[in-house]
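step: validate -> pass
step: tokenize input -> pass
step: predict -> running
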Amino acid sequence: MTDGFGRVIDYLRISVTELCNYRCRYCMDETGVGKRGHEEILRLEELAEIAAAAVALGVKKIRLTGGEPLVRRGILDLCRMLADLPGLEELTMTTNGSLLSELASELRRAGVNRLNISLDSLSPARFADLTRRGRLSDVLAGIEAAEDAGFRHTKLNAVLLGGVNTDELSDLATLARDRALSVRFIELMPIGVCADWPPERFVSADAVLQAVPGLEPVGTDGVAALYTIPGWKGTVGLIRPMSCGFCDRCSRLRLTADGKLKPCLHSSEEIPLRGLHGDDLSAAILEAAARKPRQHALTAQGRSDSPRRMHEIGG
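step: predict -> pass
step: emit ->
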């Protein structure tokens, strides 16, 4: 499956819920999100049907996201359904890690290959403030549980927040010194609740290179530029949607929990899939791929065109 610019589309991100047990300041309002009726959110069987159609068209990797995917009832059943799809090479999940100490082993047995875990601060007080209700100890326990369950090459995602966590860049990066992790720093994007934040909150990933002298480039992993220091077991990844766009390498489509397929994270365009089956479903997925823009709106206007917040799309 290719788009109108010849890019191969082989990656589908599926938001299984808009709900989350955190209220991260850059993601959603303090009041959270109004709970939708069951009829408004795709059932597990619908999610699996859409995923199967996408895999048949060439998708090789599926990432489950939220909100927080582990609060979705039946998430383990969905993982098992997707892991059994012929042709799917990788099933991954992005999670805030708060429930991993209970579920890591079950996720592994259900067929999840790899995890991305959000970790924006190593200060318990700052972590609680950023998430508005999370406990750092829960996430650290989740990381340990994931390792004990057999997950390897886990990625820790830290959003760069100028004047908030930029004094922790060295401490966060050093998590990759003694463990085979990839600590990835992601530039904050002007979308949703942080679209009108002051300019000083948006900092270039170059800040990491300044904070951690000695980092050397060692290639790429997807959209992340990888670095390490000789002797370290893991890597540091820089993801630069603002300072160094990677639209020319974008290979993904995004499915929202209410059944819309987004050709681009920052576009307002959405292709409704709910209620489609067979050839009609396949045609709609191909249409979404064909309608991917050459580049996102951030490049032209400095803010996202998406009317949805990140927890409604899948981070």
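step: describe -> The chain has a mean pLDDT of 92.
step: cleanup -> pass
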